[in-house]
Amino acid sequence: MSRSGNAHKDHDSGPAAYDATPYLPERGGLPTYRQAAADCRGCPLFEKATRTVFGQGTSSARIVLVGEQPGDQEDRRGEPFVGPAGRLLDKALAEAGIDRDTTYVTNAVKHFKFTLAEGGKRRIHKAPDLRELSACRPWLQAELDLIRPDVVVALGATAGKALLGRSFRVTRDRGTLIPLPDEDRRDEEAERWVVATLHPSAVLRSDDREAAYAGLVADLEVAARALKGR
Ligand code: URA
Ligand code: SF4
């Protein structure tokens, strides 16, 4: 992942690397980072979106949930997972015995990427590409470094790739405790985990919604048990 900070390379010399690094503060807590992220121009997604949607929740959270990117409603309201996918997530969390108020919820990419449909009236979600994902990674890293949670839940393939690398496959890797990669680990003694699961939007789109939802809850229960084991 590029941390080279050459986001401002001359555009004539080829595509500049997308990178949020130049926008990160050198120190501070979550509020400082949130404030700085509001002005991030590390990739082109800030141009069309309304605002940066930074993570939300308590800095003492033992569990961090990572989605893909804000959706239409999140972009309007400036908060992660407050639309239909968020409502489903809230329900699944409660069923798995996790109180959302004790978590920190964020996204791998912090601006809404979309295409316009119906003559510009509707904004349709478009998946972020690897360049945008890698550009935005430093914000997620800062959140994880500041919070140092015991468990990180990757909601879907994009979050899984951001946390575990490109070879991540949600169908293969979901529902088990995967050690958080070394670069994320400062305290060598601590066992910190990633649990991957389906994205709540994938549950909403699923042909067998009930089974998909049950799978989401079961995976969240794996995360909940990893917490209780402490
Ligand atoms: N989907 C996501 O991945 N994140 C949100 O915040 C909302 C929908
Ligand atoms: Fe910065 Fe991430 Fe927004 Fe791109 S998506 S402008 S890297 S905050």
Provide structural commentary.
The chain is of the alpha/beta class and 230 residues long. Helices cover 36% and strands 14% of the residues. The longest helix has 20 residues. The chain is globular, with a radius of gyration of 17 Å. Bound molecules: uracil and iron/sulfur cluster. Iron/sulfur cluster binds next to helix 4.
Short synopsis of the structure:
36% of the residues lie in helices and 14% in strands. The chain has a six-stranded mixed beta sheet, with helices on both faces. The protein has a two-stranded antiparallel ribbon with strand order 4-5.
Task: State the name of the first-level CATH class.
Answer: Alpha Beta
Number of domains: 1
Give the CA-CA distance, first to last residue: 32 Å
Distinct small molecules bound, one entry per kind? uracil, iron/sulfur cluster
What distinguishing features does this structure have?
14% strand; two-stranded antiparallel ribbon; binds iron/sulfur cluster; binds uracil; 36% helix; Uracil-DNA Glycosylase, subunit E; 230 residues
Helix and strand layout, with pairings?
Blueprint: H1 30-37, E1 56-57, E2 63-67, H2 72-77, H3 84-95, E3 103-107, E4 114-117, E5 122-125, H4 130-147, E6 151-155, H5 157-164, H6 170-173, E7 178-179, E8 193-197, H7 200-205, H8 209-228
Parallel strand pairs: 2-3, 2-6, 6-8
Antiparallel strand pairs: 1-3, 4-5, 7-8
Residues 20, 37, 40-43, 45-46, 52, 109-111, 132, 135-136, 139 line the site of iron/sulfur cluster.
